[in-house]
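ok so for the tutorial part 2 we go from a plain amino acid sequence to predicted structure tokens. step 1 is just haveing the sequence, like this:
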Amino acid sequence: MSCDSKNHSMHMCALKAQGKDDCIRDLSDNPTVECKTCGAKANNVKYLCAAHLLQEAPNVEGGHGSVSLADVGKPHTG
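step 2 — the prediction. this is what the tokens look like for a chain of 78 residues:
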């Protein structure tokens, strides 16, 4: 899946690619959403390419669990 958002540069995967780990920590210190593409978690949907709610709503795709900071933005299987 490719992201065509004009704000993609502020998404977790783009921030990781830019080496902005401190920014990632600040934007994910109280996560409420998770990216369906890479599993990154964030405080707000605007920081993810394909967001879905965490515990508040079921993930119809089966879920991806959590990923470490090193794995944010990497492609996944499943």
